[in-house]
Amino acid sequence: MRGHKLGTVLATNLLWMVFAVSEDMNIEVGPSSRVAAQIGGSTKLTCTVTGCEAPTFSWRTQIDSPLGGKVQNQGTKSTLTMDPVSFENEHSYLCTASCGSKKVERGILVELYSFPRDPEIEMSGPLIVGSPVTVTCKVPKVYPSERLEMAFWKEDSHHPMQLHEIVEDVDGNNVETKGLQMTFTPTMEDMGKSLTCEAKLPIDEMEFEPKERRTIQRLQVNIVPKNTIITITPSNTVQEGDSVTMTCSSEGLPQPQIFWSKKQDDEDPLPLSKNATFTLVGTRKEDSGTYMCEAKNQFGKSKKEVEITVVKPLTVDISPGPKITAQIGDFVVLTCTMMGCEAPFFSWRTQIDSPLWGEVHNEGTKSTLIMNPIGLQNEHFYLCTASCGDKKMEKGVKVELYSFPRDPEIEMSGPLIVGSPATVTCKVPKVYPLDRLEMAFWKEDSHHPMQLHEIVEDADGDNLETKGLQMTFTPTMEDMGKSLTCEAKLPIDEMEFEPKERRTIQRLQVNMPPKDTRLTVFPSDSIKEGDSVTISCTSGDVPKSQIILRKKTEMGDRELESPAGVHFIHAAQLEDAGVYECESKNEGGSEIRSLTLDVKEIPKYFSPQLLALYCLSSLIIPAIGMVIYFARKANHKGSYSLVDALKSKV
């Protein structure tokens, strides 16, 4: 049916190839007179006229069926857009252009195909060695499906392949899913080999790409667990209290996971472990029984069983042991356990029969010696004796002590001042054994010789001492911010404890005594009654000093109000005369400067002219003094603002 329709379209199109042409009017169609359009895609047909500025266009099919697209005319060009392309577009289209009494027309044959995607490979299930599997390769939405050619390639295949073709209708418009099936039984040789499905749509009379598609898939072959075995160390029969290790292994791909369980009478097995190796530590009589190893992966499982028998020996043990390292002051418990006896008798002693200095508690088959807190008197070799009837067994443990509880402590003899020798002490408190302690000072980028000597102080009466190290050096400004490190080590390799090394780091804060302290008076240190006077004190130092202004009086020193080191006397009186003192001080020290202010008495009789002149001078001179002061202050800060200066007086 479809072939008959295509023949009719070709015949009609040949008739439409004959078109009327005037001497100066032509028509062209595109992209060509024969177009291959993919179903579901988008295709444009164009019709262009030359020799007419404003032609009129019309489109139709050979059988006057719907166009199945949208027409857009623009000038001398008309476009028919089919989006998406469907079966209703499989026609020969005729474009007619009219210009006045002239008419030209031309036809375009639209042929359809569908080959949108690469083949899809599907497995009927996972590939398991020895189990047949069906592989299906599908090519979706193919048209014309009868022209499709398919083939399977399996790399280095040595197995016969059973092939058969399948066809599935996806929708009702003849766009079909075509497939090919292959059945084979995987082997380990297939692991990693390639499986290729190739599909071709070799329609030579239609121009489209691609006409060949393929999909390659690597084979992942799996193996059901098999050859499961159990190994036992040391043997199937163990003494109570000993350990027995069971290791299970199995072949499979993916690697099987191991599950251990123990059989129970009339109950489900008791889950124990998910590791390949399972260890019974400190076995008891009730640990006897049947243990089962089950190897599983997602494709199957395999089981193996083993019988374990636990027998009771007569043994005694101390934990922790045979040597324990404890820090002085800690809580320590020694536990002595006898196995193979239901009601043993216990006794404790030291190797030299000194007092135990601890509390003993007996309960069942265990005895504990509690030392809380543990001290130097407990540094012994302890023996636990366990008796069961006429049988006696003994076990010992050595208790070793140390003390290294805190980081070093750095102390300064005083603030660090440039040029003044300073003594730095680093102490490590409560150290034992003291003779094993090692100490060292590190001063970052030190270029000064350091005088070091060791000091030892008794902290208490139990031989826990504070050991220290002193360093003497003269600070410079280069030391500012540098690090000073005190390191202490207790390198007792034969004893296990942490930490064996402690350190403290301190940043150096260096001070410089005040210098270049200046005490000045504006306008001079000899003034008249009523004059305004500014007393200023400045200092150049690091860190910045505290400035204190005082006036010496018969009653003692009187501290003056002096923000920023400046004191104002707005109208001087005779009692303002005297000695003024400025002290500049910081952590590095202090510096004192003083001056004497002389206030002269104004005569009682003045002429009006003299009085006016005096008043004028009393205003001008302080003003000049203020200008000089703020100018010098601006020079110190790098700027001067008359507005800011006036604001400060408001």
Structure, explained:
The chain is mainly β and 650 residues long. It folds into 6 domains: 2-113, Immunoglobulins (Immunoglobulin-like), CATH 2.60.40.10; 120-219, Immunoglobulins (Immunoglobulin-like, Sandwich), CATH 2.60.40.10; 223-311, Sandwich (Immunoglobulin-like); 315-402, Immunoglobulin-like (Sandwich), CATH 2.60.40.10; 409-511, Immunoglobulin-like (Sandwich), CATH 2.60.40; 518-647, Immunoglobulins (Immunoglobulin-like). The protein has 3 helices and 49 strands. Strands 18-24-23-20-21 form a 5-stranded mixed β-sheet, with no helix packed on it. The termini are far apart. 24% of the residues are buried.
* Total discrete domains: 6
CATH class category of the largest domain? Mainly Beta
Query: What is the level-2 CATH architecture name of the largest domain?
Result: Sandwich
Question: Strands of the biggest beta sheet: in what spatial order?
Answer: 18-24-23-20-21
Residue-averaged pLDDT = 84
Helical segment count: 3
Radius of gyration, whole Å? 54 Å
The name CATH uses for the topology of the largest domain is Immunoglobulin-like
Helix content: under 10%
Shape: flat
Runs with pLDDT <50, length 5+?
A: 1-22, 629-650
CATH superfamily of the largest domain: Immunoglobulins
Structure classification: mainly beta
Number of separate strands: 49
Ends distance? 110 Å
Strand content bin: over 45%
Biggest sheet, in brief?
A: 5 strands, mixed
